[in-house]
Design goal:
The protein is of the alpha+beta class. Helix content is 36%, strand content 23%. The chain contains 6 helices and 9 strands; from the N terminus they run H-H-E-E-E-E-E-H-H-H-H-E-E-E-E. The strands form 3 sheets. Strands 5-9-8-7-6 form a 5-stranded antiparallel beta sheet, covered by helices on one side. Strands 1-2 form a two-stranded antiparallel sheet. Strands 3-4 form a two-stranded antiparallel ribbon. A hairpin with a 7-residue loop joins strand 1 and strand 2.
Length: 200
C-alpha cells in the first residue's frame, strides 16, 4: 500500500464510506491505482478517466474507451486494458490451500485426473494455475464464479479455454512473475499474440 492513496472520484469516495474500513481502503487503493495507470497511458488527469467501478461489479469504461479488468491479491494489483473484452486474475504462488480438496470441489473429473497422481507441491502449482485461468475467463465473461468455475475448461499448456455450456472460447496468456502467478483471458479472435506487460 502506498503511504498516500491516489485520487478517486466523488462517487467512489461515497462508496468508500459505505464499506467496512478494510474493504474501503482496498477499494480506494485499487480504483486510485486504476485511474493513475490509465491517466499515464491516456494523457489525461486521473479524475477525467470515464470510469465506473462500483464495488463487487466489473469496472466499466465509457463507450470508445475499450474494456478493463482488474484483480488483486495480498500485495499486488493487476490491471488489464484492451480494445476488446478482457479478464485478468492474479494470486501469490505461496498462497496456502489444500490442492486436491479444492480441485475435487470445483474442477471436472478430467481435470482432477491430471493432478491426482502429482506430488503435493506440483498439484498445488497446477491447481493455482488452473484457478487463475478460470477466474480470468469468468471475468472476461462477466460471470459468477459459483456458476462458471466448473464450466470453464483449460487443458494443461493450452492457449485457449472454453465454456462447456455456453460455447465461449477465449485466448489464454498465463505467466509467473516473481512471487505471483497471473492469467489474462482475451477474445478468441484477438490479434495480440502476447499482451504488453508493464510492471510498476
Amino acid at each position: 500500500m502506498p503511504s498516500e492513496l491516489l485520487p478517486i472520484s466523488n462517487e467512489e469516495k461515497k462508496w468508500v464510506q459505505k464499506l467496512t474500513p478494510s474493504r474501503g481502503l482496498l477499494y480506494h487503493f485499487s480504483r486510485g491505482c486504476l485511474r493513475h495507470a490509465m491517466s499515464n497511458m491516456a494523457g489525461l488527469e486521473a479524475l477525467d478517466i470515464p470510469l465506473k467501478a462500483n464495488p463487487g461489479e466489473p469496472p466499466l469504461l465509457a463507450e470508445g474507451w475499450g474494456h478493463i479488468s482488474m484483480s488483486h491479491c495480498s500485495d499486488a494489483l493487476l490491471i488489464g486494458w484492451s480494445s476488446l473484452k478482457i479478464g485478468v486474475d492474479i494470486e501469490r504462488k505461496d498462497r496456502q490451500f489444500q490442492a486436491h480438496k479444492l480441485s475435487k470441489r470445483f474442477f471436472t473429473q478430467d481435470e482432477n485426473c491430471e493432478i491426482e497422481n502429482l506430488a503435493p507441491s506440483q498439484a498445488k502449482e497446477q491447481v493455482l494455475k488452473r484457478w487463475v485461468i478460470k477466474e480470468a475467463a469468468i471475468k472476461w465473461q462477466n460471470g459468477k464464479i459459483a456458476n462458471n468455475l466448473n464450466q470453464w475448461i483449460w487443458k494443461n499448456k493450452s492457449s485457449f479455454a472454453y465454456h462447456k455450456k455456453l460455447g465461449h472460447k477465449v485466448k489464454i496468456y498465463e505467466q509467473n512473475h516473481d512471487q505471483w502467478t497471473y492469467a489474462i483471458a482475451l477474445d478468441e479472435n484477438h490479434i495480440t499474440n502476447k499482451p504488453i506487460i508493464c510492471l510498476n
